[in-house]
Amino acid sequence: xxxxxxxxxxxxxxxxxxxxxxxxxxxxxxxxxxxxxxxxxxxxxxxxxxxxxxxxxxxxxxxxxxxxxxxxxxxxxxxxxxxxxxxxxxxxxxxxxxxxxxxxxxxxxxxxxxxxxxxxxxxxxxxxxxxxxxxxxxxxxxxxxxxxxxxxxxxxxxxxxxxxxxxxxxxxxxxxxxxxxxxxxxxxxxxxxxxxxxxxxxxxxxxxxxxxxxxxxxxxxxxxxxxxxxxxxxxxxxxxxxxxxxxxxxxxxxxxxxxxxxxxxxxxxxxxxxxxxxxxxxxxxxxxxxxxxxxxxxxxxxxxxxxxxxxxxxxxxxxxxxxxxxxxxxxxxxxxxxxxxxxxxxxxxxxxxxxxxxxxxxxxxxxxxxxxxx
Length: 374
What we know:
Radius of gyration: 24 Å
Structural class: alpha/beta
CATH class of the largest domain: Alpha Beta
Number of domains: 2
């Protein structure tokens, strides 16, 4: 796996996943290994806990996070006892987590670390600035399950999207859903609303009228009601200040009206929380989607091995995924070594033992199964 040429142009990077066990930590370790040859100083944090040796949910093996001397790490204070590096605490952040305050640490030796950083977007963005102030050349945020807000341009300049067999047993589902997620993240940028206008948005949405004037959606009015009313008949573009969801758009689609040429935009792709069916219906109604700030997807990585005991064909997965997207697709486990194979065999044994135990469990104590004594 050669990711370095794809991420070299960026100072900040996020790694997000379509699901748990998509291969995010493997991707992170590959990046850390490849960047170790460049002499660059890295700043590293995670939105959730990462680096533990066994997944707390699936009870399967997880790769550790191995850093080199000089790496800057932002992690909760309680995680320091699980790090086997020599370290120097260089700064406190004031960011609370259930595992203690997030502290900035400089590794004074090579070794494994466990990460648990903040979950608030603004805090993650501030952490990157703190990394750079302490001499980091690149800041990396390791994402948690389904936290696609990490790929927002406010947090990172580019993102790597991880997917694979753990998302679904059906290869078509893996490919189509990942391709759609990529489409939403890489929508074109809108040109109807300036940064100043968006920042000053007094309510839920802004309207750009055909004559160029700007109008705000009144608080008491819903988006669908406004678009159906004659007062907004001359609208050419809409900017939604928060999340764009299926629930928000369903009344618009049910209006039975065409909106030819209308552009609906959100701040960035992470704010578009819609399904493929909703997207297709918008297009049929003449509505196109855009974003104020586009996300750069540096690569998609695919993991053909599932943590739940089944695999997908690695060549079919990679080639079909590449045919559906316009960004590089890399098999995260292309170079599976003997140690990895041993871990996978152990994981399969754990899964089989757990399933057998569940099947053989005595459920006679459950409601409805009690013996009645007369």
